[in-house]
Design a protein that fits this description.
mainly alpha
Length: 447
Protein backbone atom coordinates (compact mmCIF):
# COMPACT_ATOMS: atom_id res chain seq x y z
CA UNK A 1 0.00 0.00 0.00
CA UNK A 2 1.38 3.42 -0.95
CA UNK A 3 2.67 5.61 1.85
CA UNK A 4 1.43 9.13 2.52
CA UNK A 5 4.65 10.55 1.02
CA UNK A 6 4.19 8.43 -2.11
CA UNK A 7 0.60 9.59 -2.56
CA UNK A 8 1.66 13.21 -2.16
CA UNK A 9 4.46 12.72 -4.68
CA UNK A 10 2.01 11.23 -7.16
CA UNK A 11 -0.45 14.10 -6.68
CA UNK A 12 2.18 16.80 -7.18
CA UNK A 13 3.68 15.00 -10.18
CA UNK A 14 0.34 14.50 -11.92
CA UNK A 15 -0.77 18.11 -11.36
CA UNK A 16 2.59 19.31 -12.70
CA UNK A 17 2.36 17.07 -15.75
CA UNK A 18 -1.18 18.29 -16.36
CA UNK A 19 0.08 21.91 -16.26
CA UNK A 20 3.01 21.17 -18.59
CA UNK A 21 0.72 19.61 -21.21
CA UNK A 22 -1.88 22.37 -20.87
CA UNK A 23 0.91 24.82 -21.62
CA UNK A 24 2.33 22.65 -24.41
CA UNK A 25 -0.99 22.48 -26.26
CA UNK A 26 -2.16 26.03 -25.44
CA UNK A 27 -1.50 27.51 -28.94
CA UNK A 28 -3.05 24.65 -30.92
CA UNK A 29 -6.53 26.18 -31.28
CA UNK A 30 -5.39 29.82 -31.16
CA UNK A 31 -2.25 29.76 -33.33
CA UNK A 32 -3.96 31.82 -36.03
CA UNK A 33 -5.02 34.45 -33.46
CA UNK A 34 -1.52 34.63 -31.96
CA UNK A 35 0.06 34.67 -35.40
CA UNK A 36 -2.16 37.52 -36.50
CA UNK A 37 -1.42 39.57 -33.40
CA UNK A 38 2.33 39.05 -33.80
CA UNK A 39 2.30 39.42 -37.62
CA UNK A 40 3.59 35.87 -38.14
CA UNK A 41 3.42 34.15 -41.52
CA UNK A 42 3.21 30.40 -42.09
CA UNK A 43 6.79 29.79 -40.91
CA UNK A 44 6.17 31.97 -37.85
CA UNK A 45 3.05 29.99 -36.96
CA UNK A 46 5.05 26.77 -37.29
CA UNK A 47 7.57 28.18 -34.83
CA UNK A 48 4.72 29.17 -32.49
CA UNK A 49 3.48 25.57 -32.48
CA UNK A 50 6.82 23.76 -32.37
CA UNK A 51 9.29 25.99 -30.51
CA UNK A 52 8.46 24.68 -27.04
CA UNK A 53 9.50 21.21 -28.21
CA UNK A 54 13.03 22.53 -28.82
CA UNK A 55 13.42 23.43 -25.16
CA UNK A 56 11.86 20.15 -24.08
CA UNK A 57 13.89 17.90 -26.37
CA UNK A 58 17.15 19.78 -25.77
CA UNK A 59 17.02 19.76 -21.97
CA UNK A 60 15.08 16.67 -20.92
CA UNK A 61 18.13 14.40 -20.78
CA UNK A 62 20.17 17.00 -18.91
CA UNK A 63 17.28 17.58 -16.52
CA UNK A 64 16.94 13.85 -15.91
CA UNK A 65 20.64 13.48 -15.11
CA UNK A 66 20.61 16.55 -12.86
CA UNK A 67 17.52 15.27 -11.04
CA UNK A 68 19.11 11.88 -10.37
CA UNK A 69 22.36 13.40 -9.15
CA UNK A 70 21.48 16.69 -7.42
CA UNK A 71 17.96 16.07 -6.18
CA UNK A 72 14.67 15.43 -7.94
CA UNK A 73 12.69 17.84 -5.78
CA UNK A 74 15.27 20.58 -6.32
CA UNK A 75 15.18 20.19 -10.11
CA UNK A 76 11.37 19.98 -10.06
CA UNK A 77 11.02 23.27 -8.17
CA UNK A 78 13.57 25.01 -10.38
CA UNK A 79 11.73 23.77 -13.45
CA UNK A 80 8.43 25.22 -12.24
CA UNK A 81 10.07 28.62 -11.71
CA UNK A 82 11.66 28.54 -15.18
CA UNK A 83 8.26 27.65 -16.65
CA UNK A 84 6.84 30.73 -14.92
CA UNK A 85 9.63 32.91 -16.36
CA UNK A 86 9.06 31.65 -19.90
CA UNK A 87 5.32 32.22 -19.54
CA UNK A 88 5.88 35.86 -18.59
CA UNK A 89 8.19 36.36 -21.59
CA UNK A 90 5.53 34.92 -23.92
CA UNK A 91 2.77 36.97 -22.31
CA UNK A 92 4.54 40.29 -22.93
CA UNK A 93 6.02 39.35 -26.34
CA UNK A 94 5.80 42.23 -28.86
CA UNK A 95 6.70 39.99 -31.82
CA UNK A 96 6.98 36.38 -32.83
CA UNK A 97 10.73 36.16 -32.07
CA UNK A 98 10.25 37.06 -28.41
CA UNK A 99 7.21 34.79 -28.15
CA UNK A 100 9.22 31.87 -29.52
CA UNK A 101 12.04 32.63 -27.07
CA UNK A 102 9.52 32.50 -24.23
CA UNK A 103 8.19 29.18 -25.46
CA UNK A 104 11.71 27.71 -25.62
CA UNK A 105 12.28 28.84 -22.01
CA UNK A 106 8.96 27.25 -21.09
CA UNK A 107 10.20 24.06 -22.72
CA UNK A 108 13.34 24.09 -20.58
CA UNK A 109 11.27 24.43 -17.41
CA UNK A 110 8.82 21.78 -18.58
CA UNK A 111 11.74 19.42 -19.25
CA UNK A 112 12.87 19.68 -15.64
CA UNK A 113 9.34 19.09 -14.35
CA UNK A 114 8.67 16.04 -16.52
CA UNK A 115 12.01 14.34 -15.94
CA UNK A 116 11.98 14.95 -12.19
CA UNK A 117 8.30 14.04 -11.70
CA UNK A 118 8.56 10.63 -13.34
CA UNK A 119 11.85 10.09 -11.50
CA UNK A 120 10.11 10.90 -8.20
CA UNK A 121 7.36 8.40 -9.00
CA UNK A 122 9.90 5.72 -9.90
CA UNK A 123 11.69 6.33 -6.58
CA UNK A 124 8.57 6.32 -4.37
CA UNK A 125 6.69 3.38 -5.89
CA UNK A 126 8.18 -0.11 -5.90
CA UNK A 127 8.00 -2.39 -8.92
CA UNK A 128 4.66 -4.05 -9.39
CA UNK A 129 0.99 -3.06 -9.44
CA UNK A 130 1.45 0.14 -7.39
CA UNK A 131 3.99 1.54 -9.83
CA UNK A 132 1.82 0.45 -12.78
CA UNK A 133 -1.09 2.35 -11.24
CA UNK A 134 1.08 5.43 -10.56
CA UNK A 135 2.57 5.60 -14.05
CA UNK A 136 -0.90 5.02 -15.50
CA UNK A 137 -2.15 8.10 -13.64
CA UNK A 138 0.89 10.06 -14.84
CA UNK A 139 0.12 9.01 -18.40
CA UNK A 140 -3.52 10.02 -17.89
CA UNK A 141 -2.34 13.48 -16.80
CA UNK A 142 -0.61 13.79 -20.18
CA UNK A 143 -3.93 13.16 -21.93
CA UNK A 144 -5.81 15.44 -19.54
CA UNK A 145 -3.44 18.33 -20.20
CA UNK A 146 -3.69 17.87 -23.95
CA UNK A 147 -7.49 17.95 -23.61
CA UNK A 148 -7.62 21.08 -21.44
CA UNK A 149 -4.94 23.23 -23.12
CA UNK A 150 -6.69 24.14 -26.40
CA UNK A 151 -10.08 24.26 -24.69
CA UNK A 152 -9.04 26.73 -21.98
CA UNK A 153 -7.16 29.06 -24.32
CA UNK A 154 -10.04 29.13 -26.80
CA UNK A 155 -12.48 29.93 -23.98
CA UNK A 156 -10.31 32.87 -22.88
CA UNK A 157 -10.81 34.30 -26.35
CA UNK A 158 -8.89 36.94 -28.23
CA UNK A 159 -6.60 38.12 -25.41
CA UNK A 160 -4.23 35.16 -25.76
CA UNK A 161 -1.67 36.66 -23.33
CA UNK A 162 -4.02 36.05 -20.38
CA UNK A 163 -3.45 32.30 -20.59
CA UNK A 164 0.30 32.76 -20.26
CA UNK A 165 -0.08 35.02 -17.22
CA UNK A 166 -2.28 32.32 -15.65
CA UNK A 167 0.30 29.62 -16.40
CA UNK A 168 2.98 31.79 -14.76
CA UNK A 169 0.92 32.20 -11.57
CA UNK A 170 0.06 28.49 -11.35
CA UNK A 171 3.71 27.55 -11.96
CA UNK A 172 4.87 29.64 -9.00
CA UNK A 173 2.18 28.07 -6.82
CA UNK A 174 3.31 24.61 -7.99
CA UNK A 175 6.92 25.40 -7.06
CA UNK A 176 5.87 26.43 -3.54
CA UNK A 177 3.71 23.32 -3.11
CA UNK A 178 6.45 20.98 -4.33
CA UNK A 179 9.11 22.58 -2.14
CA UNK A 180 6.91 22.13 0.94
CA UNK A 181 5.41 18.72 0.20
CA UNK A 182 7.97 16.58 -1.61
CA UNK A 183 10.68 14.47 -0.01
CA UNK A 184 14.08 14.90 -1.66
CA UNK A 185 15.58 11.90 -3.46
CA UNK A 186 18.66 11.36 -5.60
CA UNK A 187 20.96 8.67 -6.91
CA UNK A 188 23.45 7.18 -4.44
CA UNK A 189 26.28 7.76 -6.91
CA UNK A 190 26.25 11.45 -8.02
CA UNK A 191 27.98 12.41 -11.27
CA UNK A 192 29.32 15.59 -12.82
CA UNK A 193 27.21 17.56 -15.28
CA UNK A 194 27.88 16.40 -18.84
CA UNK A 195 28.35 19.85 -20.40
CA UNK A 196 29.59 18.58 -23.80
CA UNK A 197 26.49 16.39 -24.02
CA UNK A 198 24.14 19.20 -23.04
CA UNK A 199 25.67 21.67 -25.55
CA UNK A 200 25.92 19.31 -28.53
CA UNK A 201 22.47 17.73 -28.09
CA UNK A 202 20.65 21.00 -27.46
CA UNK A 203 22.31 22.81 -30.34
CA UNK A 204 21.92 19.87 -32.71
CA UNK A 205 18.19 19.57 -32.04
CA UNK A 206 17.70 23.33 -32.44
CA UNK A 207 19.45 23.36 -35.84
CA UNK A 208 17.53 20.28 -37.01
CA UNK A 209 14.15 21.79 -36.14
CA UNK A 210 15.19 25.11 -37.71
CA UNK A 211 16.10 23.32 -40.95
CA UNK A 212 12.79 21.44 -41.10
CA UNK A 213 10.78 24.56 -40.29
CA UNK A 214 12.54 26.84 -42.76
CA UNK A 215 12.72 24.10 -45.41
CA UNK A 216 9.12 24.84 -46.31
CA UNK A 217 10.43 27.85 -48.24
CA UNK A 218 12.88 25.72 -50.23
CA UNK A 219 15.06 22.78 -49.19
CA UNK A 220 18.09 23.88 -51.19
CA UNK A 221 18.36 27.38 -49.80
CA UNK A 222 21.78 28.10 -48.30
CA UNK A 223 20.54 28.65 -44.75
CA UNK A 224 18.54 25.41 -44.74
CA UNK A 225 21.51 23.37 -45.95
CA UNK A 226 23.74 25.03 -43.35
CA UNK A 227 21.21 24.25 -40.60
CA UNK A 228 21.10 20.60 -41.68
CA UNK A 229 24.88 20.35 -41.82
CA UNK A 230 25.24 21.89 -38.38
CA UNK A 231 22.61 19.49 -36.99
CA UNK A 232 24.37 16.43 -38.39
CA UNK A 233 27.76 17.54 -37.06
CA UNK A 234 26.50 18.47 -33.60
CA UNK A 235 24.41 15.32 -33.13
CA UNK A 236 27.37 13.24 -34.30
CA UNK A 237 29.56 15.04 -31.74
CA UNK A 238 26.91 14.26 -29.09
CA UNK A 239 27.21 10.53 -29.79
CA UNK A 240 31.02 10.75 -29.65
CA UNK A 241 30.91 12.75 -26.42
CA UNK A 242 28.58 10.27 -24.76
CA UNK A 243 30.66 7.27 -25.82
CA UNK A 244 33.83 8.84 -24.45
CA UNK A 245 32.40 10.28 -21.24
CA UNK A 246 32.93 8.37 -18.02
CA UNK A 247 29.67 9.88 -16.72
CA UNK A 248 27.46 10.45 -19.79
CA UNK A 249 24.17 12.31 -19.75
CA UNK A 250 22.74 9.39 -21.74
CA UNK A 251 24.22 5.95 -21.24
CA UNK A 252 24.19 4.69 -24.84
CA UNK A 253 24.57 1.17 -23.50
CA UNK A 254 20.93 1.37 -22.41
CA UNK A 255 19.96 1.13 -26.09
CA UNK A 256 21.01 -2.53 -25.91
CA UNK A 257 18.08 -3.09 -23.55
CA UNK A 258 15.06 -4.04 -25.69
CA UNK A 259 12.58 -2.40 -23.28
CA UNK A 260 14.53 0.87 -23.27
CA UNK A 261 14.83 0.83 -27.07
CA UNK A 262 11.08 0.20 -27.36
CA UNK A 263 10.45 3.11 -25.01
CA UNK A 264 12.57 5.52 -27.07
CA UNK A 265 11.26 4.35 -30.46
CA UNK A 266 7.66 4.43 -29.25
CA UNK A 267 8.05 7.95 -27.89
CA UNK A 268 9.74 9.24 -31.06
CA UNK A 269 7.01 7.80 -33.28
CA UNK A 270 4.29 9.18 -30.99
CA UNK A 271 5.77 12.64 -31.35
CA UNK A 272 6.07 12.48 -35.13
CA UNK A 273 2.90 10.64 -36.06
CA UNK A 274 0.42 11.56 -33.32
CA UNK A 275 1.41 14.87 -31.72
CA UNK A 276 2.52 16.30 -35.06
CA UNK A 277 -0.82 15.49 -36.72
CA UNK A 278 -2.99 16.56 -33.79
CA UNK A 279 -1.11 19.86 -33.44
CA UNK A 280 -1.95 20.61 -37.07
CA UNK A 281 -5.57 19.45 -36.92
CA UNK A 282 -7.26 22.42 -35.12
CA UNK A 283 -5.90 24.93 -37.62
CA UNK A 284 -6.81 22.63 -40.50
CA UNK A 285 -10.42 22.28 -39.33
CA UNK A 286 -10.68 26.04 -38.91
CA UNK A 287 -9.51 26.60 -42.49
CA UNK A 288 -11.27 23.78 -44.30
CA UNK A 289 -14.41 23.19 -42.22
CA UNK A 290 -14.98 26.70 -40.90
CA UNK A 291 -14.66 25.72 -37.23
CA UNK A 292 -14.15 28.43 -34.61
CA UNK A 293 -11.16 28.13 -32.22
CA UNK A 294 -13.55 26.76 -29.56
CA UNK A 295 -15.12 24.34 -32.04
CA UNK A 296 -11.72 23.02 -33.12
CA UNK A 297 -10.70 22.63 -29.46
CA UNK A 298 -13.87 20.67 -28.70
CA UNK A 299 -13.41 18.34 -31.66
CA UNK A 300 -9.77 17.76 -30.67
CA UNK A 301 -11.08 16.96 -27.19
CA UNK A 302 -12.64 13.77 -28.57
CA UNK A 303 -9.08 12.49 -29.08
CA UNK A 304 -7.43 13.89 -25.96
CA UNK A 305 -10.36 13.21 -23.65
CA UNK A 306 -10.50 9.55 -24.60
CA UNK A 307 -6.73 9.24 -24.25
CA UNK A 308 -7.09 10.52 -20.67
CA UNK A 309 -9.83 8.02 -19.79
CA UNK A 310 -8.14 5.05 -21.45
CA UNK A 311 -4.77 5.75 -19.80
CA UNK A 312 -6.49 5.57 -16.40
CA UNK A 313 -7.82 2.09 -17.20
CA UNK A 314 -4.87 0.75 -19.16
CA UNK A 315 -3.19 -0.89 -16.18
CA UNK A 316 -5.80 -3.65 -16.33
CA UNK A 317 -4.79 -4.48 -19.89
CA UNK A 318 -1.03 -4.36 -19.17
CA UNK A 319 -1.33 -7.38 -16.88
CA UNK A 320 -3.04 -9.35 -19.65
CA UNK A 321 -1.09 -8.57 -22.80
CA UNK A 322 2.13 -6.93 -21.59
CA UNK A 323 3.37 -3.38 -21.73
CA UNK A 324 5.24 -3.70 -25.05
CA UNK A 325 2.26 -5.26 -26.82
CA UNK A 326 0.02 -2.52 -25.44
CA UNK A 327 2.37 0.15 -26.82
CA UNK A 328 2.48 -1.46 -30.26
CA UNK A 329 -1.29 -1.94 -30.30
CA UNK A 330 -1.85 1.66 -29.27
CA UNK A 331 0.25 2.88 -32.19
CA UNK A 332 -1.75 0.71 -34.60
CA UNK A 333 -4.99 2.26 -33.31
CA UNK A 334 -3.48 5.74 -33.81
CA UNK A 335 -2.71 4.77 -37.41
CA UNK A 336 -6.26 3.53 -38.00
CA UNK A 337 -7.65 6.75 -36.52
CA UNK A 338 -5.44 8.83 -38.82
CA UNK A 339 -6.73 6.95 -41.88
CA UNK A 340 -10.29 7.98 -41.01
CA UNK A 341 -9.21 11.62 -41.43
CA UNK A 342 -8.47 11.15 -45.14
CA UNK A 343 -10.70 13.28 -47.34
CA UNK A 344 -12.94 14.65 -44.57
CA UNK A 345 -15.29 17.47 -45.46
CA UNK A 346 -18.45 19.15 -44.15
CA UNK A 347 -20.50 16.07 -45.07
CA UNK A 348 -18.17 13.63 -43.31
CA UNK A 349 -17.79 15.07 -39.82
CA UNK A 350 -18.74 11.66 -38.42
CA UNK A 351 -15.53 10.22 -39.87
CA UNK A 352 -13.53 12.98 -38.21
CA UNK A 353 -15.12 12.19 -34.85
CA UNK A 354 -14.73 8.42 -35.27
CA UNK A 355 -11.10 8.75 -36.35
CA UNK A 356 -10.27 10.97 -33.38
CA UNK A 357 -12.03 8.54 -31.04
CA UNK A 358 -10.00 5.57 -32.31
CA UNK A 359 -6.78 7.56 -32.15
CA UNK A 360 -7.70 8.71 -28.63
CA UNK A 361 -8.03 5.13 -27.41
CA UNK A 362 -4.69 4.32 -28.99
CA UNK A 363 -3.03 7.39 -27.47
CA UNK A 364 -4.28 6.44 -24.02
CA UNK A 365 -2.62 3.04 -24.30
CA UNK A 366 0.54 4.63 -25.67
CA UNK A 367 0.85 7.30 -22.95
CA UNK A 368 0.47 4.83 -20.10
CA UNK A 369 2.82 2.31 -21.72
CA UNK A 370 5.57 4.85 -22.37
CA UNK A 371 5.45 6.10 -18.78
CA UNK A 372 5.86 2.56 -17.50
CA UNK A 373 8.64 1.60 -19.90
CA UNK A 374 10.55 4.81 -19.16
CA UNK A 375 11.17 3.78 -15.54
CA UNK A 376 11.07 0.00 -15.98
CA UNK A 377 13.83 -0.18 -18.54
CA UNK A 378 16.68 1.49 -16.61
CA UNK A 379 18.52 0.73 -13.34
CA UNK A 380 16.89 2.08 -10.17
CA UNK A 381 19.42 4.91 -9.81
CA UNK A 382 18.76 6.17 -13.34
CA UNK A 383 14.97 6.50 -13.39
CA UNK A 384 15.12 10.20 -14.22
CA UNK A 385 17.54 9.45 -17.07
CA UNK A 386 15.02 6.93 -18.39
CA UNK A 387 12.26 9.52 -18.10
CA UNK A 388 14.45 12.16 -19.75
CA UNK A 389 15.37 9.91 -22.68
CA UNK A 390 11.76 8.87 -23.22
CA UNK A 391 10.41 12.41 -23.17
CA UNK A 392 13.33 13.73 -25.25
CA UNK A 393 12.35 11.30 -27.98
CA UNK A 394 8.68 12.26 -27.68
CA UNK A 395 9.26 16.00 -27.99
CA UNK A 396 12.00 15.74 -30.57
CA UNK A 397 9.48 13.72 -32.55
CA UNK A 398 6.80 16.36 -32.02
CA UNK A 399 9.13 19.10 -33.31
CA UNK A 400 9.90 17.04 -36.39
CA UNK A 401 6.28 16.02 -36.82
CA UNK A 402 4.91 19.57 -36.60
CA UNK A 403 7.48 20.84 -39.09
CA UNK A 404 6.82 18.00 -41.54
CA UNK A 405 3.01 17.99 -41.23
CA UNK A 406 2.71 21.77 -41.55
CA UNK A 407 5.14 21.56 -44.47
CA UNK A 408 2.83 19.08 -46.21
CA UNK A 409 0.06 21.66 -45.82
CA UNK A 410 -2.97 19.42 -46.48
CA UNK A 411 -4.82 17.11 -44.13
CA UNK A 412 -5.19 14.04 -46.37
CA UNK A 413 -1.49 13.49 -47.18
CA UNK A 414 -0.60 14.46 -43.60
CA UNK A 415 -2.94 11.76 -42.27
CA UNK A 416 -1.44 9.18 -44.63
CA UNK A 417 2.11 10.03 -43.54
CA UNK A 418 1.04 9.88 -39.89
CA UNK A 419 -0.57 6.45 -40.35
CA UNK A 420 2.46 4.99 -42.14
CA UNK A 421 4.89 6.26 -39.49
CA UNK A 422 2.68 4.92 -36.67
CA UNK A 423 2.47 1.44 -38.24
CA UNK A 424 6.23 1.31 -38.79
CA UNK A 425 6.72 2.37 -35.17
CA UNK A 426 4.37 -0.36 -33.96
CA UNK A 427 6.34 -2.99 -35.88
CA UNK A 428 9.64 -1.69 -34.50
CA UNK A 429 8.32 -1.74 -30.93
CA UNK A 430 6.94 -5.25 -31.34
CA UNK A 431 10.32 -6.48 -32.59
CA UNK A 432 12.11 -5.11 -29.49
CA UNK A 433 11.75 -8.44 -27.75
CA UNK A 434 13.19 -8.76 -24.29
CA UNK A 435 15.17 -11.75 -23.11
CA UNK A 436 12.33 -12.58 -20.74
CA UNK A 437 8.76 -13.26 -21.81
CA UNK A 438 6.60 -10.19 -22.35
CA UNK A 439 4.23 -11.40 -19.64
CA UNK A 440 7.04 -11.10 -17.11
CA UNK A 441 7.51 -7.50 -18.13
CA UNK A 442 3.82 -6.96 -17.53
CA UNK A 443 4.03 -8.31 -13.99
CA UNK A 444 6.78 -5.86 -13.12
CA UNK A 445 4.60 -3.17 -14.79
CA UNK A 446 7.41 -0.67 -14.96
CA UNK A 447 10.39 -0.62 -12.74
Amino acid sequence: MATSAARTTLAVSCVATLLVLINFTAPMATVRIIGGALHAGTAGQTWILGSISIGLAAFLLAAGALADDYGRRRVFVLGALVLALGSVVSAVAPNVTVFVLGRIIQGMGSAAILAASLGLIGHEFPSGPERAHATGLWGAAVGGGIFLGPLLTSLIGGDWSVSYWLIAVVSVALALWANAALVESRSHTPRRVDLPGVITLGSGIAFLVAALTEGRGGWFRTEVLLFLLAAVILLGLFVIAERRSAEPMLDLGLLRRPAFLASVLGALVTGIAVIGLMSYLPGATQRTLGFSPLGSAVILGVWSGLSFVVALQSKKLIHRIGIRHQLAGGLVLCAIGALFLIGIGPSAIWRLVLGLAIAGVGSGFVNASLAGLAVQSVPAGQVSMGSGANNTARYLGSSLGIAVIVGIGALTPAAIVSAVVAVLGAVAVYLCRDRVPNTAVAVTASR
